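Morning run. Coffee first, then this:
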Amino acid sequence: MFHKNIKLALTLLINAYAVYQFVEGEIGNGIFLILFSLIFVFLYFRNEFILLAFLSMRKQDLAGTQKWLDKIKNPSASLIKKQEGYYNYLLGIINSQTNLSVAEKHFKKALQFGLTMSYDIAMAKLSLAGIAMQKRRKVEATKLLQEAKKLDKQQMLTDQIKMMQQQLKKI
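And here it is:
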């Protein structure tokens, strides 16, 4: 919606006006404006289109997820580093259904930019291991599976990791 620098400028302007309201004796208005400016701070660190894309992904609506991601015109300029990681992570998930080479590129970019949650890193590495298995790169797939296993602290991907290890033995 807004560029990341515009969000910061809006936050500063709203906070400046909140200070003015405090000076004028309008304490309620000042408090409301400070709370209102927190919305822009939140949206600076969590891009609204990525949040909506994750919501579509939760509903398993890949077309809707792609639609929300397409609204981000210039990801390198309008997103902070972690957001760009999640942008590429979502693109990797979408492309893993159709084009493995493009998906691999996006997952590697996502890991390069960084993902916040260890579960997301584990999922990206697990997906990369699956792509490496498809391309008959057994050593790389084994290494990625071991890294994913270490990162899966909540044991949510245990079944998928075991299944992929069984498939690796057949190669």
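The chain has a mean pLDDT of 90. Good start to the day.
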